[in-house]
Amino acid sequence: MWYLLKVFFRDPWVLFPLIISAAGQGFSWWYILFFTQSSQEQYFLHYNIIFGVDLVGDWWKLLFIPIGGLIILIVNFLLSISCYNKDKVLSRLFTVFTAIFQLCLVLTAYLAVGMNI
C-alpha cells in the first residue's frame, strides 16, 4: 500500500494537479474568510446575467464553495489512487480534471466575494 502511494505521488501528472488543487483550496478559504465579515447582513450568493442577483443569504453560505471543492478533491483523489494500478490514464484524468474544477471554484469564490465588496 505504501509503495503504491509512493509511486502515485511521484507521478508528475498526479503531483502537479494536487499542488494546484491544494493551492486553489487554500486561496478560496483564505479569500472568503479574509474578505467577508461575520455580520447579520445579507450577502449576494449568486448572480445571473439575465435576472441579476437571484440568491441572497448569510455570509457563511459562501463557505459552501470551498467545502464542495474539498469534498470533490478528496473523492476524486481517492478514486484516482484506487484505479492507479489498473489504468494510469484514467487516474491521471481524475487528477487533472480535479485541478481544472478547483480553478473554476477559485474563480467562483473570487467573483462571489467580489459582488459583496
Automatic annotation (TrEMBL):
Highest taxon listed in the record's lineage: Bacteria
Chain segments annotated as transmembrane: 12-32, 62-81, 93-113
Keyword set, alphabetical order: Membrane, Transmembrane, Transmembrane helix
Protein name: Uncharacterized protein
Biological classification of the source: Bacteria, Candidatus Magasanikiibacteriota
